[in-house]
Automatic annotation (TrEMBL):
InterPro entries: DIOX_N, IPNS-like_FE2OG_OXY, IPNS-like_sf, Oxoglu/Fe-dep_dioxygenase_dom, Plant_2OG-oxidoreductases. Pfam families: 2OG-FeII_Oxy, DIOX_N. The keyword Iron applies. The keyword Oxidoreductase applies. It comes from the Eukaryota. This is Fe2OG dioxygenase domain-containing protein. It comes from Hevea brasiliensis (Para rubber tree). Residues 175-268 form the Fe2OG dioxygenase domain.
Length: 317
């Protein structure tokens, strides 16, 4: 299979590639410790989170306070959305990356994936069907956003900055957040093995829930690790706009059953100029990146990733 041709010679896929990942230990963060009233538990959690960001660029959150139903309901609604007649979904089949709701279906170049992107903050947009989708997604957005901001507070602290440093500098009150919900067929019903090519994401962090484990893999020290999650666990990916270590990841179509995922991309406000923080460029260390607004970045990026390449290369100095 000439997969190299597809990725234009990128070494990310070769004909020798194995799609089976290894079961490695992705760091797990006990969220209840991060928000504990005990300062020593809190600082341990912050330390562990900082290490996870540096070593893996991702971690799993357990013991958060989001109820199971608030996690399960949006996934059920997603299946209802993806099961709608194609004509109905086609009204969101826009080519313009700035559209606030965008549907698409990849069934070429070894990829099997259907997706819908919806911008949900500072203004909330959701497909009008199925009934109840909007209310359920809004409730979930509200809860997961709160969790994400709390995690960014922990990350700020781990960096030795004020707890609300990222929140303030990135103007998260008017932060631009969007979902890309994904629907991957089961292995038996797919000709293709790829759900998403290896890529790095824009935004600060991405919080992912899913109906079933299997398929998402993260690169760590040259190996692909399977991300195995219990149903109420949330997977957090560190993304380009933190550039702690943006986790390279991919999706393999590898499940016995159809799999839906709901990643929330938590970002700065669109007009925030993101550039290396002065705290990291003092003492003669020159900035490694050009400052650009989040909006410009997403536009360069066609609002997402381009076949495994990070847009960071375009602004590296
Ligand atoms: O569906 C997944 O498991 C990951 C999704 C992802 O990486 C993305 O949408 O950027
Ligand atoms: Fe991604």
């Amino acid at each position: 299979m000439a997969t190299q041709l597809l990725t234009n010679g990128s070494p990310l896929y070769t004909t020798k590639d194995s799609f089976s990942g290894e079961d490695g230990a992705i760091p797990v963060l006990d969220y209840s410790k991060l928000v504990s009233s005990d300062p020593s538990l809190r600082s341990l959690a912050v330390h562990d989170m900082g290490r996870a960001c540096i070593d893996y660029g991702c971690f799993i959150v357990t013991n958060h306070a989001i109820p199971d139903t608030v996690i399960k309901r949006p996934i059920d609604k997603l299946f209802e959305f993806f099961d709608l007649p194609e004509d109905e979904k086609r009204k969101y089949d826009h080519k313009d990356p700035t559209d606030l709701i965008r549907w698409g279906k990849g069934n070429l170049n070894h990829v099997s994936r259907e997706f819908v992107k919806m911008a949900v903050h500072p203004t909330f947009h959701c497909a009008s069907s199925p009934p109840g989708f909007s209310e359920i997604l809004q409730e979930y957005t509200h809860k997961v956003r709160e969790l994400g901001i709390e995690l960014l507070g922990g990350i700020s602290t781990a960096l030795g900055l004020e707890r609300d440093y990222i929140e303030k500098k990135m103007n998260l009150k008017s932060g631009y957040d969007f979902f890309t919900a994904n629907d991957y067929p089961s292995r038996q019903h797919s000709e293709n093995r790829i759900g998403q090519f290896a890529h790095i994401d824009p935004s600060l962090i991405i919080l992912i829930i899913q109906n079933v484990s299997g398929g998402l893999q993260v690169e760590h020290n040259g190996k692909w690790l399977n991300v195995n999650l219990k149903p109420d666990w949330i997977f957090v990916n560190v993304a380009d706009h933190l550039e702690y270590k943006s986790a390279l990841h991919r999706v393999v179509v590898n499940n016995e059953v159809r799999r839906a995922t709901l990643p929330l991309f938590l970002g700065p406000s669109l007009d925030t100029v993101v550039s290396p923080a002065p705290e990291f460029t003092d003492n003669g260390r020159s900035p490694a990146y050009l400052g650009i607004t989040y909006k410009q970045y997403l536009e360069y990026n066609n609002f997402h990733v381009i076949d495994g390449k990070s847009c960071l290369n375009q602004i590296r100095l």
